[in-house]
Amino acid sequence: MAHTNRPWLMPRSRIGWGLAIIRLLVIGGLMLLGLFAMTRMPGTSYRGPLPPLSPAEEEMRDNLQRHVAALAGGIGERNIWRPGSMAKAAAYLASTLAGLGYTVHGQEFTAYGVAVSNLEVEVAGTSRPGEILVVGAHYDTVRGSPGANDNGSGVAALLELARLLRREQPGRTVRLVAFANEEPPFYFTTDMGSHRYAARCKAHGEKIVAMLALETMGCYSDAPGSQRYPWPFGLFYPNRADFIAMVGNLASRHLVRQVTGSFRQHRRFPAEGLAAPGFVHGVGWSDHWSFWEQDYPALMVTDTAFFRSPFYHTPQDTLEKLDYARLAQVVAGLDQVVLDLAH
Questions:
Q1: What range does the domain containing 140 cover?
Q2: Do 269 and 326 meet the contact criterion of CB atoms below 8 Å apart?
Q3: What residues form DSSP beta bridges with 211?
Q4: Looking at the DSSP assignment, which residues form a beta bridge with residue 128?
Q5: N- or C-end of the chain: fewer Cβ atoms within 10 A?
Q6: Please, are residues 230 and 276 in contact by the beta-carbon 8 Å criterion?
Q7: What is the mean predicted confidence (pLDDT) over 308-335?
Q8: Looking at the structure, do residues 62 and 17 belong to the same domain, yes or no?
Q9: DSSP character at residue 239
Q10: Are strands 271-275 and 298-302 parallel, antiparallel or unpaired?
């Protein structure tokens, strides 16, 4: 063994051991303070029986199920390796949005020699139209999966938010965007639809004040132990998969706190927030990452995907496994969150 002249590594006296223990306690305390800052959110997550759906929310539940059925059931696997599937999905989305009275704008680009499109609609701001809130969801799936939860649930939520917001007059402009190519092999590359979109926003000098990525939102369970986390976050969050999560990086911490606090204020539904370093497993795994790359604040609204669902990225990610009543309650809460952010 090599000799060391650094006694702080191997204390040689009681005083040395005492100082080493103090150092460890200080480091541990700082780590706990850091974790507390990442996990501490305004308000309190709801606990208790969920309220029954109102007639308007029952309509929303039925619409959500219809959209997921069209995407995951009628079209199925959606990616550029399934000829025509992306075009069929885009056509369904464009037709639905146009039917709500929107003018649909496309951003076409080519990946692996195949043309795909992002689809955008807009609710113009009245007092601060140059300040833009983006709500987005990817409509492609991983190979081999019909993608009911990933990400038919997020796209269905996007469509319902578009329906709810179409007659609003927010202060800030609200854009609702369906993105192509989020799944591998596009993930973390410039061929992500959201990366193309965020880069164009930056190139045009647009002021994106917030971006919400709707990602895998329909899986819930009340069973103890149904929720998992990367270590050590299980020490701070419930072990039941009955909540919706707002997840962002440290630079987006203010937005995560805003969104979590607003949701908790408006909705009797469990909601948790996390603002953690982007390298933490799963924190950046959706379209919000593309907006971080352009220095825009962004977060993911999610049921936590593979941390709770056994069907993630499998052929078993099918439409009958989603909880559409709870998804409707989440979307109703997000509607109020968007209005708060865009006021």
A1: 45-341
A2: yes
A3: 134, 298
A4: 172
A5: N
A6: no
A7: 98
A8: no
A9: S
A10: unpaired
Q: What pLDDT, in 10s, does the model give residues 68-119?
A: 999 999 999 999 999 899 999 999 999 999 999 999 999 999 999 999 999 9
Q: Assess whether 208 and 285 both reside in one domain.
A: yes
Q: Which amino acid is at 140?
A: D
Residue 68 inside a domain? The answer is yes
Cis peptide before 52 (omega within 30 of 0): no
User: Phi/psi class of residue 133: alpha, beta or left (left: φ > 0; alpha: ψ in -120 to 50)?
Assistant: beta
Listed in sequence order, the residues at least 6 apart from 123 whose beta carbon sits closer than 8 Å to its beta carbon are 165, 166, 168, 170, 173, 174, 175, 176, 342
Q: Based on the domain organization, do 76 and 22 belong to the same domain? A: no
Q: How far is CA 159 from the centre of its chain?
A: 15
Amino acid in the structure at residue 62: D
Q: How confident is the model at residue 21 (pLDDT cuts 50, 70, 90)?
A: low
Assigned domain for 3 exists: no
Calpha distance 86→179 (Å, rounded): 11
Beta bridge partners of 118: 107
Q: Indicate the number of domains in the chain.
A: 2
Q: How far is CA 126 from the centre of its chain?
A: 27
User: How far is 318 from 93, CA to CA, in rounded Å?
Assistant: 19
Q: Are residues 30 and 154 in the same domain?
A: no
64 within domain boundaries: yes
71 and 209 inside one domain:
yes
**DSSP letter string over 205-230?**
T-EEEEEEEEES------STT----S
* Continuous segment of H or E residues that includes residue 86: helix 85-99
Cα(209)–Cα(256) distance, integer angstroms:
13
